[in-house]
Amino acid sequence: MDQERGASEQPKHKHKIIAAIPCFNEQRCIGSVVVMTKKFVDSVIVIDDGSTDATAEVAAEAGATVHKHDQNRGYGAAIRSALEKGRQLGADVLVVLDGDGQHDPSDIPNLVKPVVEGEADVVVGSRFLGKGKRPPLYRRLGQRVLTTATNMGSGQTVSDSQSGFRAYSSKALRELTLAESGMSVSSEIQFAIGKSGLRVAEVPIAVSYIDRAKRNPIGHAVSVLSRLLVLISLRQPLLLFGVPGFVLMAGGVAFGVRVLARYSETRELAVGNALGMVLLFQAGLLALFTALMLQAMKELMRGEVARLAKEVRGYTPAEESTEGE
Ligand SMILES: Nc1nc2c(ncn2[C@@H]2O[C@H](COP(=O)(O)OP(=O)(O)O)[C@@H](O)[C@H]2O)c(=O)[nH]1
Ligand SMILES: [Mg+2]
């Protein structure tokens, strides 16, 4: 792929590469992010998610096409808009990066390479591969928990499940249908990848951590984790409820055996053990029942969801949008 930095108005690539930047109140950095990003792609779209500052004006002035949400709908909703715009504009590769300057646009050529070369449909820019500067320790710990949970639940293993720097092939743009509105969309994408048989690759990226985190890291981790539990329970109910259900019931049986043994020895009812038996057995039964119910729902809905997703893909909600450039 040829990369001519100076010739900014000519198509720079054999493939149509579009960048989309989800933003919420990023007037301070978005201008320079757009200008730097333009060097590496054919066009830049900024998804302004109901910002109350001058994000949209600055982005348009810097040369981006601005797609506005009339109110703040969340990062996930902005990612959905980004994929939708990429599809509409016929992108061969859609690159998504943050608008706060933490990502380095000069990583874009590396990120799009596996898609351009036909080796991957989704490329995740990983902060944990390579030798670059890594996030602060407390962030790394939180990220690790989220990545482990996402990897286990989705069956897809990546080193950085929460990265906001990604590239998508046109196939990925067609296949991915997402529902999460918040930051948990990054995990949801990983679940969706497994389901739709898309190929994933990871490349190392640099990140800068000059500013303090805007969101409370604990609140962020808890909100993503709780959504992850919902995602796992919907996709893998047998794993989330069935396995603990079995373990609880086995515990109940063990207590029951002890009650019987004690009774046959002493003719006394071991009240504590009996209570334990009843409680564990009931809890286990409830969990197993939930697992089976969710599994049945999942199987019933599978075909229906696929059909609806195909229909919805052709539909674009009417939204305000202002064009820059
Ligand atoms: N669309 C949208 N984007 C958001 C929202 N919150 C954050 N972002 C954007 O998502 C990117 C990453 O957010 P940031 O808060 O920097 O996350 P962090 O770097 O992981 O702490 C930035 O470009 C933000 O502007 C939101 O509510 N809606
Ligand atoms: Mg950030």
Give the CATH superfamily of the largest domain.
Answer: Spore Coat Polysaccharide Biosynthesis Protein SpsA, Chain A
Integer average pLDDT: 89
Percentage of residues in DSSP E strands: 5-15%
Helical percentage: 40-55%
Helical element count? Answer: 10
- Rough outline: elongated
Radius of gyration: 24 Å
The biggest sheet, with number of strands, parallel, antiparallel or mixed sense and barrel status, is:
8 strands, mixed
Structural class: alpha/beta
CATH fold topology of the largest domain: Spore Coat Polysaccharide Biosynthesis Protein SpsA, Chain A
In this entry the ligands are: guanosine-5'-diphosphate, magnesium ion
CATH class of the largest domain: Alpha Beta
Physical arrangement of strands within the biggest beta sheet: 7-5-6-4-1-2-3-8
Question: What is the total domain count?
Answer: 2
Number of DSSP-assigned strands: 8
Question: What is this structure, in a nutshell?
Answer:
The chain is α/β, with parallel strands linked by helices. It has ten helices and eight strands. It has two domains: 218 residues, Spore Coat Polysaccharide Biosynthesis Protein SpsA, Chain A, CATH 3.90.550; 78 residues.
What does the model show?
The protein contains ten helices and eight strands. It is an alpha/beta fold and 325 residues long. It has two domains: 17-234, Alpha-Beta Complex (Spore Coat Polysaccharide Biosynthesis Protein SpsA, Chain A), CATH 3.90.550; 236-313. The protein has an eight-stranded mixed sheet with strand order 7-5-6-4-1-2-3-8, with helices on both faces. α5 (137-154) runs parallel beside α8 (217-235) and α8 crosses α9. The longest helix has 43 residues, at 271-313. The chain is elongated, with a radius of gyration of 24 Å. The relative contact order is 0.12. Residues 1-10 and 318-325 have low confidence and may be disordered. Magnesium ion binds at residues 98, 100, 102.
